Amino acid sequence: MNTPYEAPKIQTVQQHILESQRAHPTATGQFTWLLSGITLATRIISDHVRRIGLNDILGTTGDVNVQGEIVQKLDIIANETIAGCLGYRGNVGIMVSEEDDEPRILKEPDEVADYIVLFDPLDGSSNIDVNVSIGTIFSILQRRENGDHGSVMEHILQPGYKQVAAGYVVYSSSTVMVYTTGDGVHMFTLDPAIGAYRLSRENLKMPDEGKIYSVNEAYRDQFPEGIQSYLEWAKSEDAGKSLRYIGSLVADFHRTLLKGGVFLYPPTVKTPGGKLRLLYEANPLAFLAEQAGGAATDGQRRILDKTPTALHERTSLIIGSKAEVDRVLKYWHK
Ligand code: AHM
Ligand code: MG
Predict the structure, then answer these.
(1) Which of 84, 115, 217, 276 has its CA 20 to 30 A from that of 28?
(2) Hey, which residues does 297 pair with through a beta bridge?
(3) Among the atoms of ligand 1, which is closest to the Cα of residue 120?
């Protein structure tokens, strides 16, 4: 019999997570439940972003956050939306946000709540007012061990290689989610017609090489000499490079993931320890980069090997195609 209509095969992010969890017989579904909180929150944020010019949510709140940065109204909306969507997922014990001074403790260590969620609710917020891509970045850790009642900070300040999942959402020409649980990198696009993230690419690999380098060249004179030499080389005709810099890490990284190349935020005279946050920015993106075959370093060490010493710790970051990251390091340490 002829079928009058064949429904398109759709795989949502929820189905994808459930299916990959099936490969782990001990999985309880708790993790899937947690990730569904993130997908819900980012769908709500995406809706705010789309309607931003129509509502009174453009502009600043008049406050400065713990990082010394001006707080945008949408920063707060994104922060509270994520906190709200995750707060009642009973398995989240601690939430740590770039916008909050202190972690939010939802469950005491002796209560059963395995996960710690760390996030940058709205990365690139200086781009909000000018309709340029922005995003949400998240990192998920497990409390160190069952029955380990160490201090809250001991549970949070784990090196990046201990992440159990990480990802981001870019709010751009479309809303795209990319995540890893250590089993490859997968990309989904929000289908506004059905309100769900649909699989667009599975097991994404970062190209081994790429012609784009991405850096705020205005700080060139403040960078270490080796980085300046790399930039000189990158500008030469022989190198065949091209420069792109959006100023939203999440969007600059997304391009690097898809097209290869390298993103650099080296130390500057003004920020000798680097500008980007280790826990909410560098760690999750480094996990994704490595899972996609790329690399991430602070110039001295692999990002994922760094043991954080403070909640809002900053780091320098060189991330992208492995060969290009290696080339930058070679120039830096010549
Ligand atoms: P934020 O918007 O979460 O505060 O993030 C900091 C941003 C990154 O997204 C971006 O890579 C970087 O700061 C740009 O900094 P600069 O303006 O110094 O180039
Ligand atoms: Mg940020």
Answers:
(1) 84
(2) 302, 318
(3) 3
